[in-house]
Structures are given as C-alpha cells and as structure tokens.
Amino acid sequence: MAKATWNLGIVGLRRGRGFVRVFDAHPRVEVAALCDVDEERLAETGEAFELPEDRLYTDFDSFLDAPIDIVMIATPIGFHAEQTIKSVESGKHVLCEQTAAYTIEDCQRIVDAVKRTGIAYMMAENYTYYHYIREWQKLIEQGKLGEIFYAEGEYVHEIVDLLFDEETGTYFWRHERPPIWYCAHCLGPLLTLMDDRIVKACGSHSGFHRMPEQKEHLGFLDMEAGLFRTQKGALIKILRSQVAPRHPTLVWYCLYGTRGQIENGRAGGDGLLYIEGEMSQKEGGRAIKCSTIDPAAPEEARAGGHGTSEYYMIRDFLDALDNNTRPPIDVMRSMDFTVPGIVAHESAMSDGNWRDVPLFDW
Ligand SMILES: NC(=O)c1ccc[n+]([C@@H]2O[C@H](COP(=O)([O-])OP(=O)(O)OC[C@H]3O[C@@H](n4cnc5c(N)ncnc54)[C@H](O)[C@@H]3O)[C@@H](O)[C@H]2O)c1
User: Fold this and answer.
1) Model pLDDT for residues 306-355, shown as the tens digit of each residue
2) For the chain, how far is it from start to end, CA to CA, in angstroms?
C-alpha cells in the first residue's frame, strides 16, 4: 500500500534549496531534514522553510539518522557516489542530481550497492522531462520519424563564474569537470527518445583557446565533442562547453529518422519538424513550438527552474516508490546517461579512438 507521506531529506542546499519548493507541489512528500556543510546556508534555508533546528545537519552521517525515507542528493558530483552508497545502505531511497559519478569504478560501486540493498535509486535528469521532449516522444512512438539513425545534442552553457572567482582566484568544484563528463542533459533526452543505449564512444576537444592560462583545469576546455555508437546501430554526436562565449545558453537536440527529422530552435524559438509523405519537399518542414512548460500542468508544477520538468520527474519517482517499481531513470539507466561521457573524455585525452562503453544490467 502507498505510504501516506514520504519524509525527505535534502543534502546540498544551493540546487537543493530550489527543490524544497518543487517538493511542495507534491502533497505526498514532506521535506523533513536538511544537510549542508555551510552552516550559514543551512540555517538560512531551515528558517525559510520553517524546519526545527534539530532537523538541520552539517554532518551527513548524522543526517542519515533523521526520520527520513528519501535522500535527495544535490551536492557537487564528487560526493555523489559516497553519499548514494551510504544512503542506500542505511535504507533510504535516493534521488540524486546528475551525473551519477565521475569514474566508472564509482558507477560500479553505486550499481552494486543499489542491487545489494534493493533500494530505489533515480538520477534527477530533468531535461528528459522537458515538455517538448515528452511531446516528441509521442511522435516517435507513433513511428512518424521512422527508425532514428542519427541524433545530435549540444549543451553550451557559459558558467566561468561557477568554475572560479576571477577576483580572488578561488576555484570551485566544476573547474576539474571536463565538459563531456556532464553529458546527461544531452544523452538523457536523446537515449530516451531513441529507446537505446551507448555501446562505443570516442571524443576530442579543441584545447584552451578561450582561457589559455587555465590549461591545468579541464573544466576550462573550450569545447569537447563526443561521438557515440548505439546498441541499435545509430550514431550520436554531443557537443559540450562550460566556457564558450555564447548567450543565450544553447540546449539543442536534433534527430534524423528514416521518414523525417525534428529539432528545437537554436535560439530558443520555434523548432522544425519534417515528415516525409505528410509534408512536401518543396514547402519543407513546419515550425513547431518547443516549450519546456506543459500548459496542462497545475500552476504549482512550475516551481522549479526548468519549466515543468522537475514536477513530472518527482511525480514519476514517487509513483515508483508507491508502486514498488523501478523508477524510470533507475540505476542502470542513470549509468547509460553518465558512463559514455567518462569514456568519451578518456578517448579525447589520449588517441581519440573508439572505446567500448561498459553496460550495467540488472
Ligand atoms: N539538473 C540541473 O539542471 C542542475 C542544475 C544545477 C546543478 N545541478 C547539480 O546539482 C548539484 C549541486 O550543484 P550546485 O550548483 O548546487 O553546486 P554548489 O557548489 O553551488 O552548491 C553545493 C552545495 O552543497 C554543499 N556541500 C558541498 N559539499 C557537501 C557535503 N559533502 N555535504 C553536504 N553539503 C555539501 C555546499 O556547501 C553548497 O551549499 C550537482 O550535482 C550539479 O551537477 C543540476
């Protein structure tokens, strides 16, 4: 029987702070404890959301003793593996920010811990839940584009200020994150639409033209590209940058099938859909709206910063807990969205050759 209320704790209160409001849109879950090593941020967030002081923790192990059923992990990626493993080992279900981890060994440790404990794990890949991606999925499932044989994803997000503080010279955790390691915003939606998995990867990068003085810090690579071969024989190209001077941020997807093609607008406006037989070659494809917001969603579903995506992502996670089924982005799917970027970067830093991508299975 479904639990009346799931008690949730959130660790990492920058991104995690925004989630407190998103969880508010779901009466089935209550934010019952918070954790952050930054005492000031912890106290301020606790006060803003009216949590008693004894539910605020700076120490993660003590936080796991709080009366909670679920841990939402929103700390820097380097902490995800350790915090995930400790959480599932203490019997707490996990919703973890993306990506799952930085190394294949850590991914394996997470998979092993989830398998061993039987606890639910979902990676919070929110772009997969964008309204337009969900709309495209319906078209693709109806066979409108035929068999998908090629796809591209580009996520170019200039966040130099999140890599280091120019004035003080202080580096933040993202300075050591190669761009393609953060591949899940691209691979999540594409692999979901293609219902496919990556089996081979290779990569390359353009060096440090933009900030040559930062060449010891891989987060500052200008541009990193990955090519991926899927289990069904399709090809995917991903482009990633954290420093390239492009505004607005580029979040772009494009898929080619045997009967048509679809893409969103590169500047945020309309996208394009072409379906052979339904549209003439002469007139070309038609413009399509690509909103991240589902107009049919309730008002409170817009509380997150990414359209209505986070509302639906959390709904699916809670549904899986209620029904005792695997969440849609379960631990294996989370690795499908994480591991190819690790392998592509390994290739980019050595010979650029294709490498096998390990697949994790139940
Ligand atoms: N899905 C998305 O759209 C999206 C957007 C932004 C960030 N993220 C993800 O969210 C996570 C956090 O990113 P951020 O931008 O909030 O990072 P951040 O560095 O701005 O904030 C991290 C917070 O975690 C706290 N923290 C650090 N180490 C901790 C530890 N060991 N235990 C407890 N608290 C700790 C810090 O004090 C800080 O408050 C990352 O995994 C990132 O990839 C996802």
Assistant:
1) 999 999 999 999 999 999 999 999 999 999 999 999 999 999 999 999 99
2) 25
Mean pLDDT of the 260-284 span: 95
**Residue 21: predicted pLDDT:** 85
Answering whether pTM is above 0.85, one says yes
**Which atom of ligand 1 lies at the shortest distance from residue 41's CA?**
39
Q: What is the mean pLDDT of the chain?
A: 96
Report yes or no: 158 and 247 within 8 Å, Cβ to Cβ.
yes
Q: Check if 97 has its Cβ closer than 6 Å to any atom of ligand 1.
A: yes
Which residues belong to CATH 3.40.50.720 in the chain?
6-126+313-332
Tell me which residue has its CA closest to atom 27 in ligand 1.
75
Atom index in ligand 1 nearest the CA of residue 182 equals 43
Rounded Cα–Cα distance for residues 265 and 260 (Å): 17
Which residue among 11, 14, 84, 249 is best mutated to probe the pocket of ligand 1, counting the most ligand atoms within 8 A of its Cβ? Answer: 14
> 81-100 pLDDT, tens per residue?
999 999 999 999 999 999 99
Tell me, in angstroms, the distance from the centre of ligand 1 to residue 134's CA.
27
Residue given tokens 């995930």 in the structure block: 84
pLDDT digits (tens, 9 = 90+) for 142-170: 999 999 999 999 999 999 999 999 999 99
CA of 80 to the centre of ligand 1 (A): 10
In the chain, the amino acid numbered 195 is: D
- Which CATH number does the domain 130-300+336-356 belong to among 3.30.360.10, 3.40.1160.10, 3.50.30.10, 3.30.310.50? 3.30.360.10
Beta-bridge partners for 56: 34
Q: Which residues contact 139 (CB under 8 A, 6 or more apart)?
A: 145, 262, 273
Residue 65 CA, ligand 1 centroid: distance in Å: 21
